[in-house]
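Dear Dr. H.,

I hope your travels went smoothly. While you were away I took the liberty of generating a structure for the chain from your last submission, since the lab meeting agenda had it listed for discussion. I wanted you to have the full record in hand beforehand rather than looking at slides cold. The sequence, exactly as received, is reproduced here:
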Amino acid sequence: MTALPRQGEPPGTRRLLANLCLECLSGPEACRWALSALEAGFDTPSRRILAGMSFDPQPGFFEIRPYLDAALSELNLPASPSRDEVLREYARALAEELLAGVRPVEATLEVIHRSVVSPLNHAKDLMGWCYLWEGLTPDGSFGAVTGPELERATRDFAARWLAAQPSAGPLPRRDA
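The corresponding predicted structure, in token form, is as follows:
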């Protein structure tokens, strides 16, 4: 699943940037993102080249990197944005998908814990996600939650967490 797109950016951009920051973005994943971007109407020369590289059975990351950087630049997205900001924006996108019913709870908790909470060293404001991932209440009181109760607690926490975050918007532009 890919994150719901923000206005003005291709679908999956938040995931792509998060994986780039986590140094786990693969060549094939970047090519799939470019192909998806083209399908969504985000047509640029660099995205065409990057999407075309998907015909290679295993496009290498270092081979695609210049085209990826150019594709991000064409969107006015930074090639090397703040890790903290990118990962938190990815968590925001995942939480929004969860509340929209696009993502299942357990999968969302797994991805947020693995891709955001752990890499950001279990920041205090992210601990509710960690507790829920462990099957505990989001306030850290260590009461166990499972099944429908976990679903409800996670959706409630996601709504509160999103409301407490600064308003989502585009990542900082290169000229900012």
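Two observations you may find useful: The CA atoms of residues 130 and 165 lie 17 Å apart. The radius of gyration is 17 Å.

With kind regards,
E. W.
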